[in-house]
């Protein structure tokens, strides 16, 4: 007999993912167990295995969901007809706002990507690359003379911008939307004019 899917299957799965992200972020993926995730979810270990057949499968779904949501959110920002300066600000703002409430997922992303299989990593890195490419393209448009022909410099500048965003995600995890918008403007101004630009 085929087992039917409960109406709240999606909600329970999301609850498991969010709880697992917190457990993995607090304990470290290697030290965390499926038993502890189940305890924190308030369900049995068997119930967790109904949704995920392994801790690795849980980690993969967590990372894939986080990166897909980020990629989709950034891709949906309306940029048509805007100058590069404003495009950069809107993209950075959206990335910072997307990280709000997902600090555990972001922390796991920084440490957990290397823990999954090579093929899965490849797919997840492609999602990451799509977000990075959006920022990189705008930075190139801002300084085509210096960044348009020097791929190494463009990558260094792009990764420096992401370094600032990642710093904020790690050190200001409870920042609200207003603080994130202010910081997005600061990073934009910094990128546009260096220290003298702020």
Low-pLDDT stretches are none
Shape: elongated
User: What's the gyration radius in Å?
Assistant: 19 Å
DSSP summary, beta strand count: 0
Question: What characterizes the major β-sheet?
Answer: none
User: Gap between N and C termini, in Å?
Assistant: 66 Å
Mean pLDDT: 89
Q: Could you provide a short overview of the structure?
A:
This protein is 75% helix and 0% strand.
Please tell me about this protein's structure.
By secondary structure, this protein is an all-alpha fold. The chain is 75% helix and 0% strand. The model has no long low-confidence stretch (mean pLDDT 89).
Supply database-style keywords.
198 residues; mainly alpha; 10 helices; 0% strand
How does the SSE layout of this entry go?
Elements: H1 9-27, H2 34-41, H3 45-51, H4 55-75, H5 84-99, H6 103-112, H7 118-142, H8 144-147, H9 151-171, H10 177-193
